[in-house]
Design goal:
47% of the residues lie in helices and 7% in strands. A two-stranded antiparallel sheet has the order 1-2. It has a two-stranded antiparallel ribbon with strand order 3-4. Strand 3 and strand 4 form a beta hairpin. Keywords: Nucleus, rRNA processing.
Length: 250
């Protein structure tokens, strides 16, 4: 037992690495083991990298071909991609490509519009933030009734259900029947909020696709040789507007 007590780490003396002696202060800090470990790891990492690159160069096939060899130039020691020649494609080919782009964007936009309609049908836009608020006007006989008007009493419902635009039962119905969702659980309200958020994102995406289709169509129209004047600059939310000179058809 005594030998075990002597071997306990808690009873062992803590040894520290010596610091730089005073007469060697001009040489800088004395390197500790942890500093040497970092320097050694960095050295071995660089040596392993050089060895891997040397092996890769030795194993390289001299007849190997890359398309980047003929599509880039060496300028000041840096490989720069060659610029594509704009004259390689005719105007008709460009128009066909623009038409295909428009068809693809319109196809995706219509698919997004169908998803939006399906979501609207499921949610009925109840309590939607972007929905225009309806106004319900109540008429009373005198000004005194205006100040003493109680909306919950007039609608014969609970005060907690007055702000609802849906599922607002009367007091008699609440007393005699069990109303599903009268007191909406937190999880159901959270799910409804999430669905409305998805609907808003899809509506915004559908609008952006419409703007993209308009911009592609404008660029396609600009390929014609007719004289044109820009009426409105292009913005992130709308395409540029041009006024073309009238051309008589024969």
């Amino acid at each position: 037992m005594s030998s075990f007590r002597k071997a306990l780490k808690s009873r062992q003396k803590q040894h520290h690495e010596r610091s730089q002696p005073v007469f060697r202060k001009h040489l800088g800090l004395l390197e500790k083991k942890k500093d040497y470990k970092l320097r050694a790891d960095d050295y071995h990492k660089k040596q392993n990298t050089l060895a891997a690159l040397r092996k890769k160069a030795l194993d390289k096939n001299p007849d190997e071909f890359y398309f980047n060899m003929i599509s880039s130039n060496l300028e000041d020691g840096v490989h720069v991609a060659k610029k594509n020649n704009e004259e390689e494609m005719t105007e008709e080919q460009k128009k066909v490509m623009r038409t295909q782009d428009i068809k693809y964007v319109e196809m995706k936009r219509l698919a997004e519009a169908k998803k939006i309609e399906r979501l609207k049908g499921e949610l009925h836009l109840l309590d939607a933030h972007r929905k225009q608020q309806n106004n319900h006007t109540f008429f009373v006989e005198s000004k005194e009734e205006v100040h003493s008007f109680d909306l919950a009493n007039h609608l014969n419902t609970a005060p907690e259900l007055v702000d609802r635009v849906y599922n607002r039962p009367t007091l008699e119905t609440l007393e005699t029947k069990i109303i599903q969702g009268a007191a909406e659980p937190h999880s159901l309200a959270k799910m409804r909020k999430h669905r409305y958020k998805i609907l808003a994102q899809r509506i915004d995406r559908e609008k952006k696709m419409y703007v993209i289709a308009q911009k592609i169509q404008t660029r396609k129209d600009l390929q014609d040789k007719n004289k044109k004047v820009k009426v409105k600059q292009e913005t992130p939310n709308s395409a540029a507007i041009y006024k073309f000179k009238a051309k008589r058809k024969r």
